[in-house]
From TrEMBL:
Gene Ontology MF annotations: methyltransferase activity
EC number(s) reported in the record: 2.1.1.72
Species of provenance: Rhodopseudomonas telluris
Protein name: site-specific DNA-methyltransferase (adenine-specific)
Keyword Nuclease: no
PROSITE patterns: N6_MTASE
InterPro entries: D12N6_MeTrfase_N, DNA_Adenine_Mtase, DNA_methylase_A-5, DNA_methylase_N6_adenine_CS, SAM-dependent_MTases_sf, T1MK-like_N_sf
Family: Belongs to the N(4)/N(6)-methyltransferase family.
Domain DNA methylase adenine-specific: 153-454
Entry keyword set: Methyltransferase, Restriction system, S-adenosyl-L-methionine, Transferase
Lineage, broadest ranks: Bacteria, Pseudomonadati, Pseudomonadota, Alphaproteobacteria, Hyphomicrobiales
Residue ranges annotated for the N6 adenine-specific DNA methyltransferase N-terminal domain, each copy included: 4-95
Length: 484
């Protein structure tokens, strides 16, 4: 129903001089969609209040409501082109009046968990990149044709938005940071088995894929009560995100999935000293794919007992500390974490094995993440008891993964099935912790059921890995240069 509208919006953005990348397309679509959603939400709330004989106190002042500036209508419901701003007038209104007004909500809101505060945060972090008021007018009229009134409409819109996020990830570079393949997320959730009433956390939430998929999983359970639905809305999903664009996209993604006021905080998770995390701050479940390869500054490293510049290793410490006793986690990390010999890697593996039950390691094939030359594993663990035995599974889809041949749910069906009982197979095996080297705690993935063979790698994979290594080398040299 809405697919053609999304294609038409992309066509408008493609011609717009201020929008050059898939990231720009998604950002600009997001803020317009958000305001359209907000208009539907306010109208629905006003109708509910009217049914109960009450007056509704609008969040947005009349002048700044969608129906006033974006899509003015005549009494018969048709578009009023005489009242609709266009060209330079429209751009001037959006940049000098609308955005400053919306930014002001952050200052005026009663608290950070209110929709008012989210409005202020979103419009403090992004800018209107439209340069042509005619292009913006076209985009507004297209988005006005969408509707958020029913669950079916929201579901369809969320599917289309997910498609935009997937394209953004496929575009590589920064886009790949925000997109984890949904089949992998769904498999992780099936293993962790979240329940209604448990608090679920992602401290590096990006486009909020983990939280959205966990919501869909729990929302699909039969016979949910109104209390259960309220619990899912308000008390279940929590996230933090450092980057402005990802924060905005994450909020929009959760709203489209059905969560009206997402509990996502715009903050650098790693700036918090993990010794300050108290019981009340802890969660039942952590689901995450923290950024790796980043280099954190010394003052950030001071917040962690195991100091390292590797962002992912700091996040792993944060996640362990953020879990309740008995809490469960599934975390994506670079596969070199399992065997690196540097002090931080060894200390972190020791911490994980001694204070958590690392029961499962899922080894993912190259190409799982578009545009990334690194291979990854997923660590599944429970906090509070030491590891006795680790079950490994090597995912091998039998084909080279890539942009036109991505990971799918069937590729992980066997993993989920075998993991339920930790069954051994040609692709899975168990390792007793007592057999692991006590000095290095090396957890390398070595399938004992398969003779080591030299695989002929896809040239594209080799080039992608070379590019990733070149980028990492350049970053290290730049850091050395700054110190000289």
């Amino acid at each position: 129903m809405f697919e053609q509208t999304f294609k038409n919006i992309d066509d408008v953005l493609w011609k717009e001089a201020g929008c050059a990348t898939e990231l720009d397309y998604t950002e600009q679509t997001s803020w317009i969609l958000f305001l359209r959603y907000l208009d539907d939400l306010e109208r629905a709330n006003a109708q509910k209040a009217e049914l109960h004989g009450k007056a509704y106190d609008y969040i947005i002042d009349k002048r700044y409501r969608w129906s006033s500036w974006a899509a003015p209508k005549k009494k018969d419901g048709t578009f009023d082109h005489d009242k609709a701003m266009v060209g330079d007038d429209l751009i001037k209104f959006v940049n000098t009046k609308l955005f400053p007004y919306l930014k002001g909500f952050r200052r005026r809101a009663e608290g950070a968990n209110t929709i008012e505060y989210k409005i202020g945060e979103i419009f403090s972090e992004i800018e209107n990149k439209f340069r042509s008021g005619y292009s913006l007018r076209d985009a507004l009229e297209l988005v006005d044709g969408l509707s958020f009134k029913t669950q079916r409409e929201k579901h369809e819109l969320s599917e289309l938005y997910e498609g935009k996020l997937r394209n953004m990830g496929n575009a590589g570079r920064n886009g790949g940071e925000y997109y984890t393949p949904r089949p992998l997320i769904r498999a992780m959730i099936q293993v962790v088995k979240p329940q209604i009433g448990e608090r679920i956390y992602d401290g590096a939430c990006g486009s909020a894929g983990f939280l959205c998929e966990a919501y869909d999983h729990l929302r699909g359970k039969p016979d949910l009560s109104s209390k259960d639905l309220k619990t899912l809305q308000d008390k279940t999903f929590f996230g933090k995100e450092k980057k402005s664009l990802a924060y905005v996209i994450g909020i929009m993604n959760m709203i489209l999935h059905g969560i009206d006021a997402p509990n996502i905080v715009h903050a650098n998770t790693l700036a918090e000293n993990i010794d300050d995390i108290q019981d009340k701050d802890r969660y039942d479940i952590v689901l995450a794919n923290p950024p790796f390869g980043g280099k954190e500054r010394p003052e950030v490293q001071q917040n962690f007992p195991i100091r390292t510049g590797e962002t992912a290793f700091l996040f792993l410490q944060h996640f362990i500390k953020s879990l309740k006793a008995g809490g469960r986690a599934a975390i994506v990390i670079k596969n070199t974490f399992l065997s690196n010999t540097d002090n931080a890697s060894v200390a972190l593996r020791k911490e994980l094995l001694e204070n958590c039950n690392l029961h499962t390691v899922l080894d993912m094939p190259g190409g799982t993440f578009q545009g990334a030359g690194v291979k990854t594993v997923v660590l599944f663990f429970e906090k509070g008891a030491p590891t006795r035995k680790i079950w490994f599974y090597k995912c091998d889809p039998g084909r080279n993964l890539g942009k036109t041949n991505p990971l799918n749910d069937d590729d992980l069906k066997e993993f989920v099935s075998l993991q339920a009982k930790f069954r051994d197979s040609a692709k899975s095996w168990s390792v007793e912790v007592k057999s692991i080297d006590k000095a290095t705690h090396d957890l390398s993935v070595k399938n004992p059921n398969k003779a080591e063979e030299t695989a002929l790698r896809d040239p594209k994979d080799i080039i992608a890995e070379m590019m990733a290594l070149d980028a990492e080398s350049a970053e290290i040299l730049e850091g050395i240069g700054r110190m000289l």
